[in-house]
Amino acid sequence: MRKFIQASAQFLEQRGFESPEIGIILGTGLGQILENIEIESEVSYNHIPNFPTATVEFHKGKLIYGTLSGKKVVVMQGRFHLYEGYTLRDVTFPVRVMHQLGIKKLLVSNASGAINLNFKKGEIMLIDDHINLQGGSPLAFKGVEKMGERFVDMSQPYDPEMNSIIETIAKEKQINLHKGVYASVVGPQLETRAEYRYLKIIGADAVGMSTVPEIIVANHLGLKVSALSVLTDECDPDNLKPVDIADIIAMAGKAEPDMITIFTELIKKL
Question: 2-269, which class in CATH?
Fold first, then answer.
């Protein structure tokens, strides 16, 4: 794997991806932040050696390099999921490549459903902790100890300092920011009423199909991480309506300006 990572990074370095400080992973329907970036280089995933290819129609599948808030960033426009048929090593491969390029911090966004019924769709949740329900670990492979500590401590997977700055920014900008626990499931089917009740019982405030594998690997690599969930639907098992994907994308778009404000202001302060 190390050879594959190095080959991917070298390919990108030859195309101008020079010493990025911060990596950003964009979730479903969350691409407007690119309008705030001075883009210097962009490469489709299917052109990068050893990279997976995004198969979800609303995930664009590009790696983008440029300047945001005075910092060099590398942005994943579109991510990979277990439900696309990839392994956890595939899903997290780009995080390892961004680390090889030089990032020290990782910012992650996703679209998720609100389990906590005090949270409403169109709002944002700062992830304070998570529950891994994807049935595996991206660190469970032979030779992982050569790339970092096998038994990674996850007592604080999300950086307290960056999260504190995010909360301060939200107050200053009058953004309604929740804080809670994100549960990551496999998907792609949405949850049943009983599953939503179960998620609430075990302590989840929001549920989605991504993010946790990338966070685990980021901690394995010693990267500081913060993550935001854009809440696109309300998961009330007693009043559950069929999911409308178009509505989910619309809700992501509604909340995205606040997410962009938080990330751009955070990067200024890092």
Answer: alpha beta
